[in-house]
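Protocol step 4 of 5: obtain the predicted structure for the target chain.
Materials: sequence only (see below). No template structures provided, no constraints applied. The aim of this step is simply to have a reference model before the mutagenesis design in step 5. Sequence pasted as it appears in the construct record:
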Amino acid sequence: MKKLSLISLGVLASLQFVNAQNISSKKWADLFSYNNVLAMKEDNGKIVAAAENGIFYYTISSGEITKLSKANGLHEVKISAFDYNPQTKIGLIGYQNGSMDVVTPDGVTYIVDIPIATGYNASKKINHISITGDLAVISVGYGVSIFDLKKKEFKDSAFFLTGGVYEASNEATIFGNKVYSVTNTGLKSHEMNTTFPVFSTWSTEMAGSFKHIDSESVLTFSSPTTAYLYNGGTPTPLSQTFSNARDLVVNSNSIVVTDVNRIYTFNTSGNFNNSVTFGEECNTAIAVGSNVYGGTVLSGIKNESNNSFRPDGPYFNFAYKINLYGDNQILVSTGGRGNRFNTPISNPKNPGFYYFDGMQWVYSSYFTSGTKVFNVLDAIANPTDSNEVFFTNYVFSPDQGVYKMKYNSANKDFEFVKQYNLGATSIYYTRPVGFTYDDQNNLFVTVAFTQDASSGLGFYDKITDQFTVKSFGYSNGSQKPLFYEKLLWIPLPRTNQFLAYDLKGTPSNLTDDTDYILNQSNGFAANSGGSVSVAIDKSGDAWIGGDVGLRVLPNAVSAIKDPNSATVEPIIIEQNGLGEELFRDAQILQVEVDAGDHKWVSVDGGGVYYLSADGQQTIKHFTKENSPLPTNSITDIKVDRKTGKVYFVSYDGIVTYQGDVSDVTSDFGNVLVYPNPVVYSNFKGKVTIKGLAEVTNIRIADATGNVVHSAVARGGYYEWDLNNQRGKRVASGIYFVLMTNEDGSDKATAKIAVVN
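Step 4 output (structure tokens):
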């Protein structure tokens, strides 16, 4: 079997945003929700919309939708403000952490140096952005700042400080040569002159509590119940009153007020035109010609025919764990736990779980109707019937327990089948955590706080359609289990312990089983509060992530059965000539093993590390600062071994990374070399060779047959730094890659063109 495939890095497929914006991402993609539209602007038949974690534009005539997020150009998530100038094609995005992105036809510029008032320690969130020409006025919790979009720098700032107390600018706009700001105490204004930064020189045009303001041909502002037309004289209230005005948008010929479930339109003289509803809550709305478009909370952009437009994605961004199965199918759980993995994390959106059917995201109507409270820590599909899904509901309420759902493909919805309370007699006990199926397709669920306040295990009996729960009698918390070699491997997060549970080959009988416990005497750190995650690699070693470090149990199956002598070991790496423990005192949220036996490790607050098979080398380290990760605390990692795609899950959303290792066997797959050709002026990194055998002998020769580099690659891929065996960069030319697998039964070749 001989395979050769050459790919060129070349010009990557580009994302077009507001005309000619080219932002490319080769390996990253987002699985963000674009349902909650926060702001919109129209540009010549296109609507540019800001959602929680990204920007998208919708072309009205063609229906085309394109998105821009941290996966392909932006620098943050959690958007809190947005505006866009259709004339200059420049957009400005504000984030909850106080930073901004300037999006222009030439690229995206990250702005982190927003002026902060001395002594101000509250939220740095960007409350509002309003662009007029080449200037933007930025509203924050302590006042306003003027930002020059051409120079990408701040001009004057006015800090709203009175009597030692800062007042927030809810929104602000530039009208004429004045900045107008609405605050909780009134409509305030000041000319853009030398005294602009002195708050005592600002004028209060009208006292009151006002939330929204906008201007173009006219200036309008509003309280929650009343909108006013203002042209420098007495404010004139518009004819309609509102229950709770969410937004106010003005263009050259209309004023649009968004009032939760109804949108009101007026002409620029303040005369009422019409009102429309989109059947759900809206954050904002705009008029495009004679049509109104709503920016909804749950459905993206809606038109007056009630059609929705947004990039496909999960219902919300909040995510905790995922399970991959079938043909690119995904189940996402949306719960969470705090206080040493005890207290459910309250989520007012009550999301349940999300489902991707391989083509599109589906959200069950069961979670949008009724009054049940959900904190779903895990959702899993039956291996013999993927339409049957179980989920755990970890809550302090009678709604706790395991739920069975059935997917109805005809109407693309999950229907409730049954709730199992696992014998709980109190809302504080017998709370299910996570699932696993064994090799006979038997379902097990770990249980925290059984009736005797210890951790436990539930077995699902298909015949009786019930769960039998066994208490372990120690610890009072548990994590999602892992099934491997007839054992259930269960991290215990609230005590310095780790559990392996031997089913004895009789999974339906929990009375004849044996549980093996590891603790500090087996090598866990003395200051550990518990184990959090576990993965078992191709060598049969268990990688156990704790709240203060990482431990490895070699030959785990045999070692665990003799807990008196079993020893878990830290990974010791050399730093400056001294041995140091890898991830010492760090909480390890998740460990995942890819097809090449490399390890993905999520460190709470530290991002994600990609390690060599033995853990001695850090191949990659992704953080929210150097990658599209939405946060440095990734709650789950899953690798699709068929494709090598890696899923990173967090409370701020899901992103994917196309890894270099997939389905590694003793033979070669489709061998790919990239970039190719390697042009030094364009690329100064290493050349990647993927699709290799599990163990590959590599020789790289020049055109005359001289071997310039040789190596043994493990794990399905190799990176060549373009140096010869003397450590010098090779000359320009064509190089031949000659490869054999470990026993020489399979071969592959490739060519690399080098241009220095």
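Step 4 remarks: The chain has a mean pLDDT of 93. The first strand starts at residue 5 and ends at 6.
Proceed to step 5.
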